[in-house]
Amino acid sequence: MKIFVFEYISGGGMSDQVLPESLIREGELMLQALTKDLSTQFGVELYITRDYRLSEHFFLQFNNVNLIQVAKDSDIKSIFTDLCHYCDAVWPIAPESGGILAELCEIVSDSNTLLLNTDAVAVEITGNKLSTFNYLSDNQIPAILTSTLSDYLWQPNDTCVIKPIDGVGCENSFIVSNIAEYEQVTTNVVNTGDYIIQPYVEGRPISLSCLFKQRRAWLICCNEQQINIERQQFSLTACIVNCATEQKPIFNEMIEAIADAIPNLWGYVGIDLIATSTGPKVLEINPRLTTSYVGIKEALGFNLAENVLQLINGEPDIKMTKDQPVTIHIK
Q1: What's this model's pTM, rounded to 2 decimal places?
Q2: Virtual torsion, Cα 70, 71, 76, 80, nearest 10 deg
Q3: Does residue 103 sit in helix, strand or coil?
Q4: Most exposed residue of 103, 168, 271, 280, measured as fewest CB within 10 angstroms of its CB?
């Protein structure tokens, strides 16, 4: 089975731009972990594109990994499309912002190649934080109130979070607690319709690593995100994979409801939420591999990529041989 693994940041998606340090770090961690897991699968041959500025050293240890270098002036969309036609399956890892992940998933589907990810339809829903909130609310799933910045009027005593409507992680996310901070952030926003605003909710920032298929969901582990706030801006510094929590039964009910609400979710999906004193509230849904994936094998002792491949023809066979927390440092 020929599998094309395309990590957008390191794989040439930004070959004509400056590589963002934080995103390249997370992208490389996910790509290396996924390569390790897939390379052990019998009969699997991997194809991976690499930005010309990045080292290929890590991948040389694998006999079944083929590297394709992407030069500065390369047409990455053509390269991606050609590899979709050449390979049997494609596993894209890309940001939802700007419709990037949705477009990649659509190209895979149009090439009649197996997509090892949620399809473009559900990516467009979950990639937009406002539509995600609307879907969740319509299905009575607790979520943090979300509205576009253009529809919001500042209220005294509010503490809010402003972020891109299709942003990834903490990128361009700001916390504001007074009118001066609010005006400082919004002055630099060109189109307020492209940003959303949410109340700042106190609680424990949790991400769930899950598998989805046809209205079914499997909770793999709960992870705690370590968030830093500096100069009104959020940044993810580390993630504790497989953290202890007594709320797993509630989380299981929540992801089963999400599977019903958005039935096209497939494969690995990350769900960010805030565990509050009154219960969990969903923050966003990531229809792709997330940084938490990096620590799952060490924390739980099983190959999650193998379980994703099992979804092609059946259900995952999740057999955990470990149960320990693992910290992934982002910075």
Answers
A1: 0.95
A2: -20
A3: helix
A4: 103
How many structural domains comprise the chain?
3
Report CA 90 to chain centroid distance, whole Å.
Answer: 16
CA atoms within 13 A on the CB side of 137: 12
Can you tell me whether residue 211 is helix, strand or coil? strand
Interval 68-122: pLDDT, tens: 999 998 999 999 999 999 999 999 999 999 999 999 999 999 999 999 999 999 9
Q: Which helix (H) or strand (E) holds 251?
A: helix 248-261
Q: Are residues 174 and 309 in the same domain?
A: no
Residue 283 lies in a domain: yes
Considering the domain architecture, whether residues 167 and 223 belong to the same structural domain is answered as no
Pairing of strands 216-230, 204-213: antiparallel
* Residues 194 and 234 occupy one common structural domain: no
Nearest to 50 by CA among 92, 19, 6, 82: 6
Compute CA 226 distance to the chain's CA centroid, rounded to the nearest angstrom: 16
Query: Is 121 inside a domain boundary?
Result: no
Residue 186's CATH number? 3.30.1490
- Residue numbers of the domain that contains 169: 147-199
Is the same domain home to 194 and 266? no
Question: Rounded CA gap, 103 and 17, in Å?
Answer: 19
For the chain, percent helix, then strand, then coil, each to nearest 5? Answer: 35, 30, 35
In terms of domains, do 250 and 265 share one? yes
Q: Is residue 322 part of a domain?
A: yes
pLDDT tens for each residue of 46-60: 999 999 999 999 999
- Choose the weakest-confidence range: 62-71, 115-124, 173-182, 280-289: 173-182
pLDDT in tens, 161-178: 999 999 887 778 899 999
